[in-house]
Amino acid sequence: MALLGLATIVMLATQAPVPSGRVVIRQAGQIFMEGDVRLNQLIRVPGPLGVTVVEFRAGRVRVAADPSPRQVCVRQGWLRAGEAAVCLPNRVSVEWGRLTYDSLGY
User: What's the whole-model pTM score?
Assistant: First the structure.
């Protein structure tokens, strides 16, 4: 399990950055949907365990429901810019674009 988690972190870290207002939803490492954080909608993402529900509301994004047994990504709550939620058993990830500056570019 730890190896799978490490592989997922490496996978997310090596992918191209997402513009700051954009949210990328991936299923099994492939882009399922890209959207603007200002949307107000529910996105249903199918996975091997069932459907993961991603909620966009009032300029925020979160994993609202997931069939995974531990509910780690659901309990993470609303994401901030630059954060990601990874639902490992269902192979779904939600990444809210990187901040526009970092310690190197500040």
Answer: 0.74
